[in-house]
Amino acid sequence: MIRVPLGNRQFNVMAARLTLLQATWNYERQQGLGWAWSIEPALERIYPDPAVRRERLAQHTAYFNTQPTLASVALGAVARLEEQAAQDGAADPALIPRMKSLLGSSLAALGDRLFWFTLRPFAACLGIALVLLGHTWGAVALWLAYNVVHLTVRWLGVRWGYADGPAVASGPLRSRLEALIGTFGRAGALLVGVIMACLMVPAGEPRSATFQLLLAGGLALGLACSQRARPSPTEWALGIGAVALMLGWWR
Fold first, then answer.
1. Looking at residues 203-214, what average pLDDT do you find?
2. Within its chain, how far is the Cα of 197 from the centroid?
3. Per-residue pLDDT tens for 139-156?
4. 131 and 233, same domain (yes or no)
5. CB 103 within 8 A of CB 74
6. Digit-coded pLDDT (tens) for 81-118
7. Contact residues for 158 (Cβ-Cβ < 8 A; gap 6+)
8. Which residue from 46, 92, 99, 109 is spatially nearest to 75, judged by alpha carbons?
9. Once rounded to an integer, what is the mean pLDDT over residues 67-72?
């Protein structure tokens, strides 16, 4: 039998520990050790027998990998499964690793689209647009735009996952996150247009045709390559920077 069911204290401690999910990232288990560290407060509450608790904790050190922010949702759902397995056998402990893997894969695909492909570009475009419009606090707006969403999901995701259990990856939460992806995608596209206008016609004075053509070409290249894994945006930036330096030296 378990002790008292999980409560706010366990949820808060797990969410806080999850900030170190990738502190011990390695090629063998990737986020496995960080995951075990994060779920330990729940196991301490669920399993009063130290031997059983150590056995369950050791199992959670196995390979695991997902999008770091949405790992909070998986953490809450798996904690719910552990609680059910210990309380009345409603969940077989042997099924927990498989369910954890399924949750990790599903949430990784969703989280990559939300945080890497839409929210992060949206926040960057927001900060750049504000700076180009003369607002010096553009960097603060960039930081806030990303972290309001990121930290909310990281801290409340454990509760969301615990409330819905394994169904959280296919329930209403997924629909809300999908809607958020569409919203940030459309807003980011709008901001790209604002940035283009600010660069092409700064202070109402159009740039030269050569500049405008290069800017439009760079934007088209960026859009064409944005969904490709290689070369990455960082590699593109370094390559273009190297070419610019060589051209400057040659001139």
1. 77
2. 30
3. 999 999 999 999 999 999
4. yes
5. yes
6. 999 888 876 556 678 899 999 999 999 999 999 998 89
7. 11, 14, 15, 18, 72, 73, 75, 76, 79
8. 99
9. 96
First to last CA, the chain: 77
Contact in structure between 22 and 31 (CB atoms under 8 Å): yes
| Assigned domain for 183 exists | yes
Q: Where are the alpha helices (DSSP H) in the chain?
A: 8-17, 32-46, 50-59, 71-88, 96-111, 120-132, 138-164, 172-200, 209-225, 233-250
Gap between the Cα atoms of 225 and 22, Å rounded: 28
pLDDT in tens, 1-44: 455 578 899 999 999 999 999 999 999 999 999 999 999 999 99
Contact of 76 with 41, CB cutoff 8 Å: no
Q: Is residue 243 part of a domain?
A: yes
Residue 203 and residue 140 in contact, taking contact as beta carbons nearer than 8 Å:
no
Task: Kindly tell me if the per-residue pLDDT of 176 is higher than 70.
Answer: yes
159: in domain: yes
How many structural domains is the chain composed of? 2
Give the residue from 100, 125, 145 where a domain finishes: 100
- The pair phi, psi for residue 18, each rounded to 5°, is -65, -20
In one-letter notation, the amino acid at residue 151 is: L
